[in-house]
């Protein structure tokens, strides 16, 4: 089975009334989806997540760190942002391969400090609250992860940069 590296991002913004998740209306699949796509040969998965987010939504975001072990002092190489999850997803033929294959999807969580696009998105993009997800045509796995993230987004954002604080948030939520 052929496997392709992909990167996708749960993009959140805190509006005055609540957190909202940004989703694109993916015309080929006829569903609302988080932003994402294939990793190019000259980029890391984290770089692909940022590029795909800006291409598909027009937004610039910051990826939120997930807990990972520290590198030893003096380690000589640059660290790459770790995804929150890595999953294998069977997909039908697409514009990259004319047969069914697997996407090894590196899933990130990010915050858009501004909800206003800095460039024209390639897909229709909109913000949705947690209670609006049930009425959207979207993949069940995406809806499941989004519903797990919504209740703790404020705590995740507050703990950004505080690894022990984030570990407590995730342990309390059951996502540890």
UniProtKB/TrEMBL annotation:
Gene3D superfamilies in the record: Nucleoside Triphosphate Pyrophosphohydrolase
The superkingdom listed in its UniProt entry is Bacteria
Quote the protein name from its UniProt record. Answer: NUDIX hydrolase
> Which positions fall inside the Nudix hydrolase domain?
2-149
- Which keywords label this protein? Hydrolase
* Single GO term (MF): hydrolase activity
Q: Which CDD domains does the entry mention? A: NUDIX_Hydrolase
**Parts of the chain that traverse the membrane:** none
Organism, by scientific name, is Amycolatopsis pigmentata
């Amino acid at each position: 089975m052929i496997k392709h590296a992909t990167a996708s991002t749960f993009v959140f913004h805190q509006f005055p009334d609540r957190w909202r998740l940004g989703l694109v209306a993916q015309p080929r699949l006829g569903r609302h989806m988080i932003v994402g796509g294939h990793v190019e040969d000259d980029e890391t998965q984290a770089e692909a997540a940022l590029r795909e987010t800006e291409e598909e939504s027009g937004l610039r975001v910051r990826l939120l760190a997930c807990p990972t072990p520290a590198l030893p002092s003096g380690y000589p190489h640059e660290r790459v942002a770790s995804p929150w999850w890595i999953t294998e997803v069977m997909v039908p033929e697409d514009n990259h391969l004319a047969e069914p294959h697997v996407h090894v999807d590196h899933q990130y969580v990010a915050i858009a400090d501004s909800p206003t696009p800095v460039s024209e998105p390639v897909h229709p993009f909109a913000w949705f609250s947690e209670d609006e997800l049930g009425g959207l045509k979207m993949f069940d796995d995406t809806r499941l992860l989004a519903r797990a993230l919504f209740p703790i987004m404020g705590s995740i954002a507050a703990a950004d940069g505080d690894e022990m604080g984030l570990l407590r948030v995730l342990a309390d939520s059951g996502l540890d």
